[in-house]
């Protein structure tokens, strides 16, 4: 074959030098390596035939190492690989389009001989190709906003799945995506990464016939039902810094503002029967605990504002509220009170600062943090026990474990700011399950998984340490629904966002997104509410 110098590339990979020569007529020119009687040369000729060649070119791999030319090889090329150690080796031609195939053996075995050139030729035959156009149409409530993944069946002998023309690709929830350069014939297309509340009415898998020179449409009709029937309450600060309580409804009403007082209203907590919401407010000067109807009406004070009272938590039977009370000049203690304001009791009388009271599922105990340690005590304040150093304790739904975080670094940007751990309520069997960004953890209903934020993403970790990323947004807080696989997550940038995520799959799935106006500053303190 006569050849003119197309492009000369001399690269040293530690194994060989290569020279690339194109085929437009003329003589070929090589790049010589350092002299020596112990090396040989490999000359690889690539010839492409057929009516629909792959103009984007190919790749070459020799002895397990890909030869880097800086760009794909032209479809008709002579490549000289210089200064090779003698011995056997395999040459693989890769990144062939689906409509092209090597005539003969690929990879091919060669023998490098000292002082000699070994020649090998790859002949590629390309047939007229066709295309598949995947079309997704999504209807219903709570659609899968991040779209879908589709897969075309793989062909044996092609690199990976379909090489550069990969069988995996994305399609928007109401969009289309074309995969071209496919060999004519029968192909199977499968839609994946479909949220659990959505179904493909005409089937997840479709078999179609690719026709040369044509684009074959493959429609997938997706219908979604409401992802969750539960409302979600949260606190949000507007552009003026005024914090109120809002509810995101699941029945199409969107986001509703429940409180309108000029003071700060925060820490929403639903009663066990979801008829009442407790919250903290400084509307009369100092923070106090209030209750209101689930619709935001009939606001009633529970405490009198003689302390700064925050973070109300309902007992499982709805008969009591635990909260953090801070009297001026004293440290914060854990208090208990009846919803009508009677029976106010300081449970701890500690000189150290306390926070995060959480009831055990059976209502007999409280877990809380004090001066960087996790403690439990009886519901009446008796028998406090120090379990371990940590913050943000959370009882598992079945009562068998307590999750908490242990601060590892004072640097907010450190990759593992805190460790997520679980411990038995008696203080035994501490187990580390992962790293977090110092944010409250949230248990799954099965008490076997925990959601939390890490490096501003939402992560689910099993008690076996298996981690799954379910969202890569700028996550601040998470809250797992009382049943199912939904996780609510708040994000802060660029605008405050409430996302509903699917933690049931192996890939991130955003079920719904509610964005507050960008004038709002924060969205936090998520609390799952009643079925609507």
What's this, in brief?
The chain has 532 residues and is mainly beta. The chain has no helices and 45 strands.
Q: What do these coordinates show?
A:
It is a single chain. The protein has 532 residues and is mostly beta strands. It is 0% helix and 51% strand. It has no helices and 45 strands. β38 and β39 (457-462) form a beta hairpin. It is elongated and about 95 Å long. It starts with 16 loop residues before the first strand and ends with a strand. Mean pLDDT is 82; it is low at 1-36, 155-166 and 410-415.
Unreliable segments of 5+ consecutive residues = 1-36, 155-166, 410-415
- Beta-strand residue percentage: over 45%
Going by helix content, strand content and strand pairing, the class is mainly beta
Rounded Rg? 32 Å
Question: Main sheet?
Answer: 5 strands, mixed
First-to-last CA distance = 77 Å
* Approximate helicity band: under 10%
Please tell me the overall pLDDT.
82
- How is the largest sheet built, in terms of strand order? 1-5-2-9-7
Work out the number of β strands: 45
Count of DSSP-assigned helices: 0
Shape descriptor: elongated
Question: What layout of secondary structure does this protein have?
Answer:
Layout: E1 17-22, E2 40-50, E3 59-62, E4 65-66, E5 77-84, E6 87-94, E7 100-103, E8 108-112, E9 117-126, E10 130-140, E11 148-152, E12 168-171, E13 175-182, E14 185-192, E15 198-200, E16 205-210, E17 215-224, E18 230-237, E19 243-248, E20 255-257, E21 265-270, E22 276-281, E23 288-293, E24 300-301, E25 308-314, E26 321-326, E27 333-337, E28 345-346, E29 354-359, E30 365-370, E31 373-378, E32 385-389, E33 391-395, E34 402-407, E35 418-423, E36 431-436, E37 442-443, E38 449-454, E39 457-462, E40 467-471, E41 475-480, E42 486-491, E43 497-502, E44 510-515, E45 522-531
Parallel strand pairs: 2-9, 10-17
Antiparallel strand pairs: 1-5, 2-5, 3-4, 3-6, 6-8, 7-9, 10-13, 11-12, 11-14, 14-16, 15-17, 18-19, 18-45, 19-20, 21-22, 22-23, 23-24, 25-26, 26-27, 27-28, 29-30, 30-31, 31-32, 33-34, 34-35, 35-36, 37-38, 38-39, 39-40, 41-42, 42-43, 43-44
């Amino acid at each position: 074959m006569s050849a003119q110098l197309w492009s000369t590339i001399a690269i040293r990979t530690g194994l060989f030098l290569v020279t690339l020569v194109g085929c437009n007529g003329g003589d070929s020119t090589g790049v010589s390596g350092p002299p020596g009687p112990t090396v040989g040369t490999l000359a690889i000729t690539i010839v492409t035939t057929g009516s629909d060649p792959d103009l984007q070119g190919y790749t070459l791999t020799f002895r397990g190492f890909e030869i880097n030319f800086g760009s794909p090889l032209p479809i008709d090329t002579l490549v000289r690989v210089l200064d090779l150690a003698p011995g056997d080796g395999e040459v693989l031609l890769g990144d062939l389009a689906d409509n092209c195939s090597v005539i003969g053996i690929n990879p091919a075995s060669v023998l490098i001989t000292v002082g000699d050139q070994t020649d090998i030729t790859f002949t590629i035959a390309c047939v007229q190709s066709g295309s598949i156009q995947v079309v997704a149409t999504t209807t219903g409530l709570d659609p899968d906003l991040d779209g879908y993944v589709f897969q075309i069946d793989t062909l044996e002998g092609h690199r990976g799945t379909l090489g550069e023309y990969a069988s995996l690709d994305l399609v928007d929830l109401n969009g289309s995506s074309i995969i071209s350069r496919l060999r004519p014939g029968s192909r199977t297309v499968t839609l994946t990464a479909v949220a659990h509340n959505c179904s493909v009415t005409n089937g997840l898998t479709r078999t179609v016939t690719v026709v040369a020179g044509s684009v074959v449409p493959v429609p997938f009709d997706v219908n979604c039902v409401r992802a969750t029937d539960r409302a979600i309450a949260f606190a949000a600060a507007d552009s003026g810094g005024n914090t109120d309580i809002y509810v995101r409804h699941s029945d199409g009403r969107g986001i509703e503002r429940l409180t309108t007082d000029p003071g700060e209203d925060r820490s929403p907590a639903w009663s066990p029967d979801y008829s009442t919401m407790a919250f903290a407010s400084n509307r009369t000067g100092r923070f106090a605990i209030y209750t209101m109807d689930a619709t935001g009406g009939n606001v009633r004070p529970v405490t009198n504002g003689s302390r700064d009272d925050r973070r109300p938590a309902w007992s499982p039977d709805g008969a009591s509220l635990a909260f953090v009370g801070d009297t001026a000049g004293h440290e914060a203690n854990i208090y208990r009170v009846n919803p009508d304001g009677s029976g106010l009791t300081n449970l701890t009388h500690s000189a150290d600062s306390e926070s995060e009271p959480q009831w055990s599922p059976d209502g007999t105990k409280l877990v809380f943090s004090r001066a960087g340690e996790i403690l439990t005590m009886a519901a009446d304040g008796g028998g406090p026990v120090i379990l371990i150093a940590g913050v943000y304790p959370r009882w598992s739904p079945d009562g068998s474990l307590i999750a908490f975080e242990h601060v590892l670094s004072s640097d907010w940007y450190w990759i593992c700011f805190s460790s997520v751990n679980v411990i038995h309520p008696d203080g035994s069997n501490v187990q580390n399950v992962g790293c977090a960004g110092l944010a409250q953890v949230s248990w799954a209903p099965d008490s076997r998984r925990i959601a939390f934020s890490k490096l501003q993403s939402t992560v689910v970790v099993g008690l076996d340490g298996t981690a799954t990323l379910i969202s890569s947004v700028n996550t601040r807080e998470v809250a797992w629904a009382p049943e199912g696989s939904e996780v609510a997550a708040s994000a802060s940038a660029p605008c405050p966002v409430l996302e509903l995520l699917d933690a049931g799959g192996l890939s991130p799935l955003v079920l719904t997104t509610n964005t507050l106006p960008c004038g709002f500053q924060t969205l936090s303190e998520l609390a799952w509410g009643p079925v609507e």
